[in-house]
Design a protein that fits this description.
8 strands, 2 helices, alpha+beta, 177 residues, two-stranded antiparallel sheet
Length: 177
């Protein structure tokens, strides 16, 4: 999707993540956003012993978190700071044992639609032949604008609209067909 242009810079993404997800930095600041480009984002997981599993290899959960974070960064870089964009599907194939070194994740958007973003993530290490892991991920993008049943066009404002009870359920903002 080379025709896509990022609407957020690395600095803007980092500031958004720090503001909205400070828990990501608790314990250690090992993941950084390296770059964003047309349809892509590249993140680095710095090597840390806390990411090792028995046997001395980087754990699957650490690599999966990196891949999901990379896709989230790619999606937000292209739609703007939408905190409620959420993972709806995630698949990961582990292809070889990673060395005790940094891992790079390159997320590539394959489709960026109005309500869904689909992409692929490749995890690599410097000097290694081939990827460590490969994943695919789908994100649900919440609708923009007033919620369904909210004020219509025609100059009606939220204050003038009749009050309706709000239902607070997890799936309310998902598109219904």
């Amino acid at each position: 999707m080379a025709d896509l242009k990022p609407v957020m810079s690395v600095a803007e993404l980092e500031a958004f993540m720090e503001r909205e997800f400070p828990q990501m930095r608790m314990g250690a600041d090992t993941t950084t956003i390296e770059a964003v480009g047309p349809g892509t984002a590249v993140l680095r997981l710095g090597f840390a012993e806390r990411n090792l599993r028995p046997g001395g290899t980087i754990s699957g959960p650490a690599m999966m978190a990196l891949a999901d974070y990379a896709m989230y960064a790619a999606v937000l870089a292209h739609i703007g700071p939408v905190g409620l964009a959420v993972t709806t599907s995630f698949h990961m194939d582990f292809m070889r044992r990673p060395a005790q070194a940094d891992i790079l994740a390159e997320a590539r958007l394959m489709k960026l639609g109005r309500v869904l973003a689909v992409g692929a993530i490749e995890l690599t290490q410097a000097g290694a032949s081939g990827p460590v892991a490969h994943g695919t991920c789908t994100y649900s993008i919440p609708p923009s604008g007033p919620p369904a049943g909210g004020p219509a066009g025609g100059g009606e404002t939220a204050a003038a609209a009749p009050a309706k009870p709000t239902r607070r359920k997890w799936g309310n903002w998902l598109p219904h067909r």
